[in-house]
Amino acid sequence: MGPQKKITREEEAAMFIQAWWRGTLVRRTLLHAALRACIIQRWWKQMLVKLLERKRKLALDFYVRQEWAVVKLQSWVRMWRVRLRYCRLLHAARIIQLYWRWHNCRSRGFIQGHYIFKESQLNLQLEISLGAQACRVQQCIPLPIKE
Questions:
Q1: Residue 33 and residue 25: Cα distance in Å, rounded?
Q2: What pLDDT sits at residue 147?
Q3: Do residues 110 and 130 lie in contact, with contact meaning Cβ atoms separated by under 8 Å?
Q4: Domain extents for the chain?
Q5: Which pTM does this prediction carry?
Q6: CA dihedral sign, ordered 65, 67, 68, 69
Q7: How far is the first Cα of the chain from the last one, in angstroms, to the nearest whole number?
Q8: Spatial CB neighbours of 44, under 8 Å, sequence gap ≥ 6
Q9: Could you tell me the maximum CA-CA distance found in the chain, to the nearest angstrom?
Q10: From CA 30, how far away is CA 23, in angstroms rounded?
Q11: Residues linked to residue 114 through DSSP beta bridges, in sequence order
């Protein structure tokens, strides 16, 4: 090893100040790096929160659409069942009306007839029934047709 040099007090003080200054610079650089890393981490966490919120909103929208579709389908099925029941009741009412009218015609009387168009004439045949009495009418009516 070489000859050792004696360090004076001034040099020792200068080395102490230089070491302190280098330490301060390193600590400042590390502090700035830590602050920048903290800023980046906060920004990344905000992005993750936004992404999670967007996914949550999409899932909620999908759920709402599914629920709406289910409710719509249920209302259609209920409407179909009510309409089917209404048609059955309407058919039953028509049958009851038919039998009631038939009964009324048998007990009170009725008018029955038919007609035929022949060339320029209307042939009309009517049968009027009132209980045990019956009356038949047959008439040929000329129609004024211009030729």
A1: 12
A2: 57
A3: no
A4: 9-108, 109-146
A5: 0.44
A6: positive
A7: 148
A8: none
A9: 159
A10: 10
A11: 125
Phi, psi of 142 (to 5 degrees): -75, 140
Pairing of strands 133-142, 110-118: unpaired
Kindly state the tokens that stand for 27. Answer: 């600590």
Sheet architecture: strand order including 133-142: 110-118, 121-130, 133-142
Looking at residue 147, what DSSP letter applies?
-
Which of 7-21, 41-55, 118-132 bottoms out in mean pLDDT, i.e. has the lowest?
118-132
C-alpha torsion sign, points 118, 121, 122, 125? negative
Instruction: Give the type of residue at 35.
Output: L
C-alpha to C-alpha distance for 139 and 118, rounded to whole angstroms? 13
Give whole-number Cα distances, 96 to 21, 81, 101, 134, in Å.
Answer: 111, 23, 9, 27
More confident residue, 115 or 145: 115
Contact 23, 31 (CB under 8 A): no
Cα angle 132, 134, 138; round to 5: 175
Convert the pLDDT of each residue in 5-47 to its tens digit.
788 999 999 999 999 999 999 999 999 999 999 999 999 999 9
Structure tokens at 142: 């000329």
